Amino acid sequence: MDLVAPVVVEPLKRRRCSECHRGPLERMILEFNAPVCLDCADLGHLVFLPRGSTALTRRAREGSTLWAVVVRHNRRRTRYERQGLLVEEAALAAAERACLADAEARARRRARDAERRAVLDAGVTAALRAEILRLFPSCPADRAGEIAAHASAKGSGRVGRTAAGRSLDRGAVTAAVRAGVRHVDTPYDTLLMQGVHRHQARTRVAPAIEAVLRAWRGDGGDARG
């Protein structure tokens, strides 16, 4: 049977309980669109566990017979965002003891995971650099490395992190090189600082970019891929 946890709201405005009339409320639930304090909602015995530790949250939730999700409305994003959980105090204490007992093991696991991710990221960058040098054999090796590192930076959303970039698609690799040339070998950034619109600035520097790409290809061909 699927469990449906109560949802507790941290109100942005001062609210009073519709049953006992106490307030202002730090946290409440809504029943028939009316605010109800946690004591009246039979949740007052639970303690708040802020979000942050995945292991602690999971263990406290699993050990608590009754638990609730705590949310707060984000006006800028126009949505409710989770702030943590309300759990039974005994369950939280047991979860804290369990996390303390295996903290070293979890730290080692995180370190191993980080190492694996670093090796994977390094492999993506190395493969991208090699493909840049294959497509543009006259490109300086250090520039190829810089372009590959920039394009494949973790969390950047740049070409090297896309599916096309990871598969070394010719168009994606050429786009990464073109972007690197645009910022380093042309006055593109200076034009932007002078107030030139991005599309107009790109048009102005396009011939210079293509000249560099042709030179790096070394065969006078079209590098547009």
Q: What does the secondary structure layout of this molecule look like, with pairings?
A:
Elements lengths: L6 E3 L18 E4 L2 E4 L9 E4 L3 H10 L4 E7 L4 E9 L1 H13 L1 H33 L5 H11 L11 H4 L3 H15 L3 H6 L4 H20 L8
Parallel strand pairs: 1-5
Antiparallel strand pairs: 2-3, 4-6, 5-6
Helix pairs in contact: 1-2, 3-4, 3-6, 6-8
Protein name: DUF2293 domain-containing protein
Pfam families: DUF2293
InterPro entries: DUF2293
If you had to describe this structure to a student in words, what would you say it looks like?
The strands form two sheets. Strands 1-5-6-4 form a four-stranded mixed sheet. It is built from eight helices and six strands, in the order ββββαββααααααα. Strand 5 and strand 6 (about 80-85) form a beta hairpin. The protein has about 220 residues and is an alpha+beta fold. This is DUF2293 domain-containing protein. It comes from Streptomyces bikiniensis.
Radius of gyration: 28 Å
**Beta-strand percentage?**
5-15%
Give the count of helical stretches. Answer: 8
The chain-level mean pLDDT equals 84
Main sheet attributes: strand count, strand direction, barrel closure: 4 strands, mixed
Number of strands: 6
Proportion of helical residues? 40-55%
- Across the major sheet, the strand order is 1-5-6-4
Identify low-pLDDT runs. 155-161, 220-225
Shape: elongated
Q: Look at the helices and sheets and give the structural class.
A: alpha+beta
The succession of helices and strands, N to C, reads EEEEHEEHHHHHHH
How far apart, in Å, are the first and last alpha carbons?
Answer: 55 Å
Organism: Streptomyces bikiniensis
Pfam families: DUF2293 (PF10056)
Domain DUF2293: 132-217
InterPro entries: DUF2293 (IPR018744)
